[in-house]
């Protein structure tokens, strides 16, 4: 088995209030748990799904997931950490290569986020989706501000958190021996010396803790929490000495190179400007001045990731990008699929959210004279409404 998903649903939700555990409350007519489980059961790279439940909730569980093809549930323990450990232990016989561990009360997890976590998992390396902290953080003493916390390098962790199964099982077994109380599986992995890589999270992948959170989830589902914005980008680089060009992160052999301060990737530059434009955040030169030697010969995926992270820090997400490359040569068609995959990988998007096209100018203009390459991009993003 390549990948299993473990959905942790043994909590009682004391902060939520009421008699019905929050994972069994309904949103848009369906139990929260069912929506969460369905996201993983429907993912093409997830082979099996198991839910960890509270011993008292079997009838609620059976009703919530009726008709879904799942592994039999297992009972959880006294806290989340013990519940995950018990869930992992129950999967020993199946021995999946990879495991995704997810909170049952994050029902809006997207397939592209799951894919992003799976891509980042490797031997000795786990992955978690996260969002950069955008708000100013204050430390308080008895509800009086006692100081400001530097938010540099701080991220908000989400789930699913993914690992090689053998790695995280061993890490949980060691943590149990030491009776360590850790807040999430990434912390368990860190204590065991595993590397944990961050991948872009999603503002909609929120955890339902209160009634207000439930209302926010329903608002997201209705499309009432986002504002779609569109930006465009255009970039040109001339040909110069060299034996290859880089376009959309893909090296293409050619009888010339492209001249620029960075790697002169016109495709990624145009997409970056389109994203920055949609976010109202200036252009690529504002963020990476060509006068700064730090960016000489820099790979342009740095610029594109920066634009995506900036959007994520504002609670937004990239919806799609559409790029047109304009040149006579080199021929783009043989490389389009690889370009599309690379852009999707950088932005943590599904392949169908990225379009790469090519055209010529019928021998007219500087591209027609084969003096350089032009790129034009459009991008759509969603930002939270204020």
Written account of the structure:
The chain has two domains: 3-221, Spore Coat Polysaccharide Biosynthesis Protein SpsA, Chain A, CATH 3.90.550.10; 226-384, 2-C-methyl-D-erythritol 2,4-cyclodiphosphate synthase (60s Ribosomal Protein L30, Chain: A, 2-Layer Sandwich), CATH 3.30.1330. The protein has twelve helices and 19 strands. The two termini are 45 Å apart. The strands form six sheets. The protein has a five-stranded mixed sheet, with helices on both faces. Strands 16-13-19-17-18 form a five-stranded mixed sheet. Strands 10-7-12 form a three-stranded mixed sheet. By secondary structure, the protein is an alpha/beta fold. The longest helix has 14 residues, at 165-178. 30% of the residues lie in helices and 29% in strands.
Number of domains: 2
Main β-sheet: number of strands, strand sense, barrel status? 5 strands, mixed
Estimated share of beta-strand residues? 25-35%
The CATH class of the largest domain turns out to be: Alpha Beta
Q: What order do the strands of the largest sheet run in, or round the barrel if closed?
A: 5-4-1-6-11
CATH topology of the largest domain: Spore Coat Polysaccharide Biosynthesis Protein SpsA, Chain A
CATH superfamily caption of the largest domain: Spore Coat Polysaccharide Biosynthesis Protein SpsA, Chain A
Mean of pLDDT = 92
Uncertain segments are none
- Percent helix, as a range, is 25-40%
Q: What is the overall silhouette?
A: elongated
Overall structural class, as computed from helix and strand content, comes to: alpha/beta
Task: Give the number of helices.
Answer: 12
């Amino acid at each position: 088995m390549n990948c299993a998903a473990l959905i942790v649903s043994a909590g009682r939700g004391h902060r939520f209030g009421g008699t019905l555990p929050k994972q069994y409350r309904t949103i848009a007519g369906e139990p929260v748990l069912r929506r969460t489980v369905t996201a993983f059961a429907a993912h093409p790279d997830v082979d099996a799904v198991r839910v960890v439940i509270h011993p008292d909730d079997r009838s609620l569980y059976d009703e919530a997931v009726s008709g879904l093809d799942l592994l039999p549930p297992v009972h959880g323990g006294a806290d989340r950490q013990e519940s995950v450990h018990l869930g992992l232990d129950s999967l020993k016989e199946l021995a999946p290569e990879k495991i995704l561990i997810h909170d049952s009360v994050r029902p809006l997890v997207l397939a592209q986020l799951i894919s992003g976590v799976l891509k980042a998992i490797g031997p000795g390396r786990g992955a978690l989706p996260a969002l950069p902290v955008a708000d100013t953080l204050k430390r308080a003493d008895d509800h009086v501000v006692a100081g400001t916390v530097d938010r540099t390098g701080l991220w908000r962790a989400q789930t699913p958190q993914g690992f090689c199964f053998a790695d995280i099982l061993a890490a949980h077994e060691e943590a149990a021996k030491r009776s360590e109380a850790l807040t999430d599986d990434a912390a368990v992995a860190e204590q065991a010396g595993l590397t944990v890589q961050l991948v872009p999270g999603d503002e909609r992948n929120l955890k339902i803790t209160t009634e207000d959170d439930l209302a926010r989830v329903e608002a997201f589902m209705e499309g009432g929490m986002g504002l779609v914005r569109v930006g465009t980008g255009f970039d040109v680089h001339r040909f110069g000495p060299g034996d290859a060009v880089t376009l959309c992160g893909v090296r293409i052999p050619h009888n010339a190179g492209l001249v620029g301060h960075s790697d002169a990737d016109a495709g990624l530059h145009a997409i970056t400007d389109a994203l920055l434009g949609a976010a109202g955040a200036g252009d690529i030169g504002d963020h990476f001045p060509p006068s700064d030697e730090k960016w000489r010969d820099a790979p342009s995926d740095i610029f594109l990731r920066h634009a995506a992270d900036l959007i994520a820090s504002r609670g937004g997400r990239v919806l799609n990008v559409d790029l047109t490359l304009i040149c006579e040569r080199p021929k783009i068609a043989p490389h389009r699929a690889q370009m599309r995959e690379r852009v999707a990988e950088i932005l943590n998007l599904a392949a169908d959210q990225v379009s790469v096209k090519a055209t010529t100018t019928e021998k007219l203009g500087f591209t027609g004279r084969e003096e350089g390459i032009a790129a034009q991009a459009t991008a759509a993003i969603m930002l939270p409404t204020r």
